[in-house]
Amino acid sequence: MIPLRDTIPARYYPLVTHVLIAVNVLVFLSQISYGPRELQQFIVTYGLVPARYTSGEISAYFTPFQQVFSLFSFMFLHGGFLHLLFNMWSLYIFGDNVEDRLGSFYFLIFYVGCGLVSGLFHFALNAQSTTPVIGASGAIAGVMGAYFLLYPHSRILTLIPILFIPFFVEIPAFFFLGLWFLMQLLNAAGAQAQQAGIAWWAHIGGFVCGMAALKLFPLLPDNRGENGYHRSSIRRKKSDHLQVIRPRGGGSEPDVHETLRITPYEAAAGATKRINVPWGFHNRMYRLKIPPGTRDGKVLRLKGLGRDDDSGNKGDLYLTVKIEQPW
């Protein structure tokens, strides 16, 4: 299952989320500039190697600063492009909403704290391991744990490839994230968990930390005001690029109707959206161009996206534009 987007729009621009993504990408570009030998040394130095803290012979090769710094730096390293891509995509989907709720300042502390706890959780269960642990997965698992509690009834548009055919399904967030957490538990308990080279317990520790830390949030100074010091003051100008359209129509009419919501900025400047139209098992993705100067109430006609009539001909989908600021 590949998550594509959630259905909860963030009100504010997720500044810290985007900065974290940029930092991870920049560090990865730095990684691939090294040769194989230098890269291995780089990962051992800045990754989390549990034996560095339990073996005097190994710890002697590192300075006290390196020992402390690696507890944080490991969460910005990645083992390959796909590893980076999956982590950053998950952070992009879930991070904006959690940052929106916590505020940018607290979200940064929350993210780094979950990453640290995930590393310590792995360390506690693998104290003698000489295998470096790298990746933002533990910190992002914490974000997912917070999302699990904050938005359990949100829906995650998910790509499920079946026999090379892409199917798009909306899955409740509590089910999607609950299933993800269950898979981490099963993999961690499996006999081959250590052989896979994946820090499953770091994922579990991060997820649990995210849920626990969220419970402490009400004890912190309130930063939820409109002009709160800790919150990004940049309001989003655009709605989500990918939207789910659920057509509706009366009786057996082949033509169907729905509302497309866009922001005032998008109405003035124009926008390009990708819409998912769920028709049973025939869900498809379409590209929709919204021209500049679009007015409220304008109707966009998408030919052939309606129901089949008695003759087997396709009706049309009519989208009525609704201009609003949804946050």
Give the arrangement of secondary structure elements.
Layout: E1 2-6, H1 15-31, H2 36-46, H3 51-54, H4 56-59, H5 64-73, H6 81-102, H7 104-125, H8 137-150, E2 155-162, E3 165-172, H9 173-189, H10 200-216, E4 242-244, E5 256-262, H11 264-269, E6 271-277, E7 284-290, E8 299-302, E9 317-323
Protein name: Rhomboid family intramembrane serine protease
Keywords: Membrane, Transmembrane, Transmembrane helix
GO molecular function: serine-type endopeptidase activity; unfolded protein binding
Q: Could you tell me the strand content as a percent range? A: 15-25%
Secondary-structure-derived class? alpha/beta
Count of distinct strands: 9
Number of discrete domains: 2
Q: Can you identify the CATH class of the largest domain? A: Mainly Alpha
Q: Which parts are unreliable, with pLDDT below 50 for 5 consecutive residues or more?
A: 191-196, 223-229
As a percent range, the share of helical residues equals 40-55%
Which radius of gyration do the C-alpha atoms yield?
A: 23 Å
Would you identify the CATH architecture of the largest domain?
Up-down Bundle
Task: Write down the overall mean pLDDT.
Answer: 84
Order of strands across the main sheet = 1-2-3
- CATH superfamily of the largest domain, by name, is Rhomboid-like
How far is it from the N-terminal to the C-terminal residue, by CA?
A: 29 Å
Q: Please provide the ordered H/E string of secondary-structure elements.
A: EHHHHHHHHEEHHEEHEEEE
Number of helices: 11
